[in-house]
Amino acid sequence: MNKDPRKTKSISDCFTPELTRQFQIEMDAALKKMDMSSVKEVLEEYKIAHFQDSIDFIEALDYCFNSWKKENMGSKVYGEVTTSESRCIACEHGKGMIVYEFKYMHAAAPIPMNRVVYGWDFGILLDIRDEILFEVRVCNAFLDKDEMEKIRIV
């Protein structure tokens, strides 16, 4: 499928336009599972898990997947993980990304807090140039849905 990882110098060396499209589909499905092992499997499958960018991605994603959980509170995702398009407003200003949004609750929290549904979101920026993936990373500075709607109106 991919070239020998020992001979590659960057993530882009592992991709063709077709592999980039396939990676996007598989990574999207893994991210919607909110399961780190699924994300790592995709990185391994495409032989890019050993690159520093991928290691940094996993570290940042771990925060997104786990920082909302409270120990011994039965924290769980409530419903489906949804996506929307957005734009970076920080280091990659203007670049497009996908925002993953989910609701969660702490089912074992004392009543009535065990019924409160919270929301969380995080952005994934895929740096794709000429249909080739160069980098995947987490972005936490992006426009929300209302801001994106205002941009479309203008």
Provide a brief overview of the structure.
The protein has helices at 17-33, 36-45, 52-66, 145-153, and strands spanning 75-87, 96-106, 118-129, 132-139.
Describe this structure in words.
Helix 1 (17-33) packs antiparallel against helix 2 (36-45) and helix 2 (36-45) packs antiparallel against helix 3. The protein has helices spanning 17-33, 36-45, 52-66, 145-153; strands at residues 75-87, 96-106, 118-129, 132-139. It is an alpha+beta fold and 154 residues long.
The total strand number stands at 4
Strand order, largest beta sheet: 1-2-3-4
Name the helix and strand elements from N-terminus to C-terminus, one letter apiece: HHHEEEEH
* Helix-and-strand structural type: alpha+beta
For the biggest sheet, the summary is: 4 strands, antiparallel
Write the layout of secondary structure elements.
Layout: H1 17-33, H2 36-45, H3 52-66, E1 75-87, E2 96-106, E3 118-129, E4 132-139, H4 145-153
Helix pairs in contact: 1-2, 2-3
